[in-house]
Every structure is written in structure tokens, then in C-alpha cells.
Amino acid sequence: MTSIAGGISDWPTADFPGVRVNPETLLPQIVNEEAVQEALAESEDAADRVMVLLLRGRTADAAELLAEARYRDPESFRLRIFEAEMHRATNRFDRSVQLFRQLLNEVQGTDREAVVHQYLGRTHYVSGNAAAAAESFSKALDLRVATAADASLIYSSTLALQRARDVLELAS
């Protein structure tokens, strides 16, 4: 298990065993390698492998696997999310934002809209645009509350929105 100062009990879950969202960076992080390995061994979803490679900083390997998986399943929502995440992870923020906005146009009014707003907010936050991040996190939170989403998702959006607002307050 990765050693985390202060513990991880208040870190939001990241929808994959052994992964949590760091409340400072708002990025997912492996906190239990054994749990990640067990989940990967049971998974047949290429998106899970792409995500873990990204979390490990192996972007070239992730990009190769992502290209193969997208070729086999070009409409996969998760793979499209990770394509945009790949751009975020490699500091191509404009392209990441563009892909997330394209996804937003496609999923508007569906249960996937909040997910895309959350990822878009993360890209804005990491790129230093706390105002746009706060706007995206706020939309994700509103949608999640309105649809009575799982409490862990509401918590994740709430924490991200507060973090973005804290950064904005410090900057002013």
C-alpha cells in the first residue's frame, strides 16, 4: 500500500478498487497496489488497464493500448473518457477540454453528463483554470444531487468544487 501522509479515509473513492481521489490534486491515485492488481486480474475491460497505466504514469503504454481498444470499440464511452484523460495526463489541456466538450454535447440530458462535467472540471483544475473547474464541478454536483446519485459521487463533486473555490479564494 502506498504511504499517504494523513491517511486516505476522507479521500473520495475512484470507482476502482485500490484507487482514491487525492483531495489536493483532485487526481486519482493508487493507494492499494494489491487491490488494483486483483481487480485487473478479474477485469476483461481494456479501459481498466488504460486507467491503471495512466495512474502509473505509463502514458506511452496507455496510449498504445487505448488506440487498440478504440479501434475495436470506437464508441465506448469509457475509452473516449480515457482518450481525453490521456491528453490531460500529457499536458495537452486544450485537446482534453475539446474532447470533453464534444462528449458533453453527445451525453447532455443523460446520466453520463455529470461524469463528463466532473472529468472536464478536473482538466480545468489541473491546467490552472480554477474558475472553469468550479463551474464544471458545480454542474456535476447539481446533476448528481438532482438524480439522487450515489453519496460517494456527490461527495467527490462537493470536495472538488470546494477545492476549486478554495484555490480561487487564495488567488484573489
Write the layout of secondary structure elements.
Layout (H helix, E strand, L loop, with lengths): L18 E3 L6 E3 L2 H10 L3 H10 L3 H14 L4 H13 L3 H15 L5 H14 L3 H17 L4 H21 L1
Largest sheet: 2 strands, antiparallel
Distance between the termini: 38 Å
Oligomeric state, counting identical vs distinct chains: single chain
Compute the CA-based radius of gyration: 16 Å
The backbone outline, from C-alpha atoms, is globular
Tally of separate helices: 8
Share in helix: 55-70%
Please report which band the strand proportion falls in: under 5%, 5-15%, 15-25%, 25-35%, 35-45% or over 45%: under 5%
Could you explain the architecture of this structure?
With 172 residues, the chain is mainly alpha-helical. Helix content is 66%, strand content 3%. Strands 1-2 form a two-stranded antiparallel sheet. A hairpin with a 6-residue loop joins strand 1 and strand 2 (28-30). Helix 2 packs parallel to helix 4 (77-89) and helix 4 packs antiparallel against helix 5 (93-107). The longest helix is centred in the C-terminal third of the chain and has 21 residues, at 151-171.
At a glance:
The chain has 172 residues and is mostly helical. The chain contains 8 helices and 2 strands.
Descriptive tags:
single chain; 172 residues; mainly alpha; two-stranded antiparallel sheet; 8 helices; globular; disordered N terminus
